[in-house]
Amino acid sequence: MWWVMLAAILVVAAGYTLSGKKRRKRPESGDQWSIGILRGPDPLSLAEHPAFANPRFSVADIPGDDYIMAADPFLVEDADRWLLFFEMLNRRTRLGEIGVADSDDGWHWSYRGQALEESFHLSYPQVFRHGNDWFMIPESRAAREVRLYRALEFPLRWTLERVLFTGNYSDPSILRWNDRWWILATRHPRRLEIWSADELHGTWRPHPRNPVYRYHKSAARGGGRPVVADGRILRFAQDARQGYGSALRAFAIDVLDEQRFREHPVEPDPFLAAHGNGWARAGMHHCSPVQLASGDWMAAVDGSGISGRRDTAAGAAP
Predict the structure, then answer these.
(1) Residue 312 pLDDT > 60
(2) Which of 39, 99, 139, 275 could join 124 via S-S bond, C-beta 3.0 to 4.6 A?
(3) 118: pLDDT strictly greater than 80
(4) pTM
């Protein structure tokens, strides 16, 4: 009967029990996405702080056992506190929801709760302030819409304000430049398109150069919040040449107006990548930089690797 025992071993090794049900893998048992914090003198010169080991926030920091990863972090500052919006993947539904954590110093984070849930997958929660209101544009590709949400009670209550435009778009990244609103979004599978409007609530129109990239593995998919630093726009893009989520590239946009678009990659290239044997050993694919009052920059990034509960007691605020 040795062949029966061998067949059972092979079935279990493939991830199934003899009853035909797939075994649930604990998030601690393999690589998963978690969130780190970097600091540096400019958004292209970021590094980990020696006193604060990454990840600074992981699924282990979310109470209970409902979620299996935390990724796509967007960092904002409000009234002397830091807020971190991120995708958290629901274990039961396998749909992304938007979570939020807060911090007094940018290093020690506490989970606040769920900010947004829909009947479809959400991720990439870009949060920004305009006038007296806070807005969010998450990825809602499953709904075939690019949606604008407004905070009713910041940061945990949001309402759908309007649909900006429709289509099969991933990772819509919004930017205010030359008195105009711009969104750079990835049309499935790897085409980068640009849309713009005079006003946030106005009519959004596609750029005449669309798509500005066609099926490009290392430039077409957004990788975080675009920023303006030293008078130039920096855009981050996922680099999938070595597989999904393996690295992140940075591009400087040379020309962006209603008729033209031109950019070039900047060093270091890749900007962030898999490294070490810990929290980011398998990949990095997102960066959300914010400039501090000192002129330095802080960024929330994500990494794929070993991301169990961190030691929150280690280190002190610099």
Answers:
(1) no
(2) 139
(3) yes
(4) 0.88
Q: Are 70 and 90 in contact (CB under 8 A)?
A: no
Question: In the Cβ-directed half-sphere of 225, how many Cα atoms lie within 13 Å?
Answer: 27
Domain assignment present for residue 10? The answer is no
**Could you give the dihedral angle defined by the CA atoms of residues 76, 79, 82 and 85, in that order, rounded to the nearest 10 degrees?**
-50
Give me the number of domains the chain comprises.
1
d(CA 221, CA 121): 18
Residue at token pair 């591009």: 251
What does the pLDDT look like over 240-290, one tens digit per residue?
A: 999 999 999 999 999 999 999 999 999 999 999 999 999 999 999 999 999
Q: Residues 107-128, buried b or exposed e (16+ Cβ, 10 A)?
A: bbbebeebbbebeebbbbbbbb
Domain that holds residue 251: 33-305
Q: What is the CATH number of the domain that holds 249?
A: 2.115.10.20
**Does 216 map to a domain?**
yes
